[in-house]
Design goal:
Layout: E1 26-32, E2 35-40, E3 45-50, E4 57-61, E5 65-68, E6 73-82, E7 86-94, E8 100-104, E9 110-112, E10 117-125, E11 132-141, E12 146-155
Parallel strand pairs: 5-12
Antiparallel strand pairs: 1-2, 2-3, 4-6, 6-10, 7-9, 7-11, 8-10, 11-12
Length: 157
């Protein structure tokens, strides 16, 4: 899980005027029972993340590892599930390099109901892909919460 600190100081970042941009400088963390406490040095705030509060949806990967040769593609999928209806949800599909691509035919945003939704993703290594191990981030997000997981992509010589 990743938590974005809501207060950000735009003077400490390379921000455009009137944008939701800036840096939140976390000074310290403390974990006690189900809570993660933190202090923000820039904004002089104290915050807490209560990990006992259930997340509104979950992500399950079909496969955590994929092996490709340059010029090859493989399909994978992930399941988004929720106990309640979520009226507007969008996908997270990110890839690390210009020679590695991940695409989905699922239109975004979409509505999620109590029926799990399967999202198909095609992962492609270009002909000039550099052999190595890479990570592709797959997931979904609503206004305040993003949940994503990494798929490890091994590109063979």
């Amino acid at each position: 899980m990743e938590y974005m600190i809501p207060s950000k100081n735009p003077a400490w970042g390379d921000c455009e005027p009137n944008s939701d941009c800036g840096l939140a400088q976390i000074f310290d963390f403390s974990i006690y029972k189900n809570k993660i406490w933190f202090t923000e040095w820039v904004e002089n705030n104290i915050g807490v993340v209560d990990t006992s509060v259930p997340l509104p949806f979950a992500i399950d990967l079909e496969s955590k590892d994929i092996t490709l040769k340059p010029g090859e593609s493989k399909a994978t999928s992930f399941i988004i599930s929720s106990q309640k209806d979520i009226p507007q949800m969008s996908l997270i599909v990110s890839y690390p390099d210009n020679f590695l691509n991940a695409t989905s035919t699922t239109t975004s945003p979409f509505k999620l109901d109590s029926t799990p939704k399967s999202v198909d993703v095609l992962i492609t290594a270009d002909d000039d892909a550099i052999p190595g191990t890479y990570k592709i981030l797959l997931g979904s997000q609503i206004e305040d919460i993003s949940i994503s997981k990494y798929v490890t992509v091994n590109i063979l010589p």
